[in-house]
Amino acid sequence: MFKGVAEGDVPAEVIAEEQRERKGLFGRLRRNLGKARLAVRDGLKSALYVGVDRRLYEQVEETLIAADVGVDGTIKIVDELERRCTAKKIEAREPFFEELADVVAGALKPEDPERQRIDVSADPSVILVVGVNGTGKTTTIGKIAFRLRQMGKTPLMVAADTFRAAAVEQLSAWADRAGCDIVKQEAGSDPAAVVYDGVAAARSRGADVVIIDTAGRLHTQVNLMRELEKVRRVIEKQLPGAPHETLLVLDATTGQNGLRQAQEFKQAVDVTGVVLTKLDGTAKGGIVVAIHDSLGIPIKLVGVGEKLEDLRPFEADEFARAVFGGGDEDGD
Ligand SMILES: Nc1nc2c(ncn2[C@@H]2O[C@H](COP(=O)(O)OP(=O)(O)O)[C@@H](O)[C@H]2O)c(=O)[nH]1
Ligand SMILES: [Mg+2]
Predict the structure, then answer these.
(1) Is 41 among the domain residues?
(2) Model confidence pLDDT, tens digit, residues 114-137
(3) What is the per-residue DSSP string for 82-125?
(4) What's the CA gap between 313 and 1, in Å, rounded?
(5) What are the pLDDT digits (tens) for 170-207?
(6) Which residue's alpha carbon is at the smallest distance from atom 7 of ligand 1?
(7) What protein residues have CB closer than 5 angstroms to ion ligand 2?
(8) Which residues form the domain of 181?
(9) How many domains would you assign to the chain?
(10) 216 CB within 6 A, ligand 1
(11) Please, is 248 exposed, middle or buried when counting C-beta atoms within 10 Å of its C-beta (0-12, 13-18, 19+)?
(12) Could you give phi then psi for residue 133, rounded to 5 degrees?
């Protein structure tokens, strides 16, 4: 999940629990996507007699679009699928689905696998967390801090969502739960000033990872996007090389709108990774393909619930197999 934390630092029971949970999660995703999967399979029954034909590809296309993969990504995937199936002379259902999952997984992997991990190797590392209101930024920060604590790191939260007093209180509650320090000022303060304080505090208190919460903003709110650019500049100036990560938090249930958000945030603050939240409650995980395919932003983490432990590294192969893949087993 993190780059800069030795694998040996992660307690074995944490890893075991994660593997158990992941099976359940992808099983759930499979069930959520059941209808789309069944539609493809029903179509396939008749298609089986005539092999892998045009109708089948059209059905796959519809499924991908229904899962929010987006038109461009869908076309690329189906073209590649067709090329491979022709080359390998694939005519039966199972190998066809296997190939589909493989192509989707390929569309989700950055060339350098290291880019899929959160870089916390600098000391201190700075993670800036951005996104639209209600996507799960504050919750995700709590989860990340908790994971880092489990790995023996000393995170420090910075409450730069100064819009509402409640936002600062909410982050403080997560800091308590995760067992880490927080830097905050009264509501209404300049977020850039809070961030400046936060980075300075990390250095003086010896914290390793600074995690910055920001106010939710719509990608269409020009002034608020400027404010975010300013926050970023302040960090850059104070600590060359920072922020080491700028994570965009996206709500998986919002579908195609997520792609527009990603475009705008990427332009303003150079997003290094996406955290896809609420994957526990949707059948629309396909948006990750659209984001990775058209913007080249890797998906780094997924949120699978409202609790401290409900954060997972994103695994392209498992994800693709759960959502689009072959096999009839339920996954759990
Ligand atoms: N089911 C589910 N709910 C989540 C997840 N992440 C966040 N939430 C919920 O989404 C709501 C908004 O979260 P919050 O962190 O306040 O969003 P923010 O406005 O971006 O800071 C809260 O009710 C969270 O409990 C997740 O992965 N799964
Ligand atoms: Mg918040």
Answers:
(1) no
(2) 888 899 999 999 999 999 999 999
(3) HHHHHHTT--SHHHHHHHHHHHHHHHH--SSGGGGSEE--SSSE
(4) 5
(5) 999 999 999 999 999 998 999 999 999 999 999 999 99
(6) 136
(7) 137-138
(8) 113-315
(9) 1
(10) yes
(11) buried
(12) -55, 135
Query: Across-strand partners of 67?
Result: none
Residue owning tokens 């505090």: 201
Residue 229 has pLDDT above 90, yes or no: yes
Residue 100's Cα: distance from chain center in Å? 22
Residue 325 has pLDDT above 70, yes or no: no
Q: What are phi and psi of 291, to 5 degrees?
A: -70, -45
Ligand 1 close to Cβ of residue 330 (< 6 A)? no
> Is there a cis peptide before residue 124, judged by omega within 30 degrees of 0?
yes
Residue 271 lies in a domain: yes
On whether the pTM is more than 0.90, the answer is no
35 located within any domain: no
Residue 150's domain is classified under what CATH number? 3.40.50.300
In a domain, 127, yes or no: yes
Contacts of 50 (CB under 8 A, 6+ apart): none
Atom of ligand 1 nearest to the CA of 213: 21
